[in-house]
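Summary: Need help interpreting a holo structure output

Steps to reproduce:
1. Submit the protein chain below together with the SMILES for nicotinamide-adenine-dinucleotide.
2. Request a joint structure prediction with the ligand placed.
3. Inspect the structure token block that comes back.

Expected: a single structure record containing both the chain and the bound molecule.
Actual: see attached output.

Input attached:
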Amino acid sequence: MTLDTIRTVAVLGAGTMGNGIAHVFARCGYNVILRDLEESLLTRARDTIAKNLDREAKKGKIAEGEQSKILTHIHTTTDFSEIARADFAVEAVPERLDLKLSVLREADKLLRPGAILASNTSSISVTTLAAATSRPDRFIGMHFMNPVPVMPLIEVIRALQTSEDIFQATMALCERLEKKPVAVNDAPGFVSNRVLLPMINEAAFAVMEGVATAEAVDSIMKLGMNHPMGPLELADFIGLDVCVHILDVLHDGFGDSKYRACPLLRKMVAAGWLGRKSGRGFYAYAK
Ligand SMILES: NC(=O)c1ccc[n+]([C@@H]2O[C@H](COP(=O)([O-])OP(=O)(O)OC[C@H]3O[C@@H](n4cnc5c(N)ncnc54)[C@H](O)[C@@H]3O)[C@@H](O)[C@H]2O)c1
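--- attached output ---
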């Protein structure tokens, strides 16, 4: 597999991550087939991409007038069979093992044998996902960060079965996307979430125990550690339900009580205080 043979990229799922992934591939000249279940979801994704491209044009990241050309690189469809002409596919459907397995098995059947299949999972074992396909050596984790068009990092996760060729091609592809790939091996939470989530969890414990307010915890980490966002602000941005889910993955995967989710996080999730998306988390947000 050489990098130059990758021209057409399928993106499975056009939600928060999928529309951003389609955006960066199209911006770099790739033909994108963006697939979701309903036309209305694809229209919403296209509108989001158009709005984000306008913002990039205003900031001078792309030339003024480029937006419409980039959009013509993105073909949206609800028909799964259309992904058959892709050389590379990135799965970005919701973080549920059963759903990912069924989407990946279907994609595996449709794609030609030489195509590479990647998952944007943030917590599921890439080795398990690879094993569900007929191409485990051509399977890899490609963990984009939110918001995808803005964040430089792609955490590239090698499944136990990923071949060296496919790993190298994926790393080079990330560079072509003008991203910074960092390679890790498959393990619960990879590196990003294994390091980030315990910090968020500890911040929640500090609030629960009355050590400090959420504002004080965040101020300390911003002013003292030079973090651009405090851990609790970031938790609200990620979604407290997602944070608890990832902590559970770490807890189950390692069997180590140090990853036990803070009871305050669980209580807030039970109350529906999920962070920005629900209008309330550690902070209140205008809806
Ligand atoms: N949101 C984040 O900050 C973030 C960051 C990194 C990684 N991730 C990971 O990215 C993946 C997607 O997350 P998201 O936040 O974009 O979710 P989302 O819910 O915003 O989007 C998922 C999309 O997939 C679609 N979908 C469901 N079943 C499908 C199918 N069979 N075929 C095609 N599309 C289908 C849904 O309709 C939805 O539009 C998850 O694995 C998540 O863990 C998310």
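--- end attachment ---

Reviewer comment: The pocket of nicotinamide-adenine-dinucleotide is lined by residues 12-18, 35-37, 41, 92-95, 99, 103, 120-122, 143, 146, 238 (CB under 6 Å). The chain has eleven helices and eight strands.
Status: needs-info
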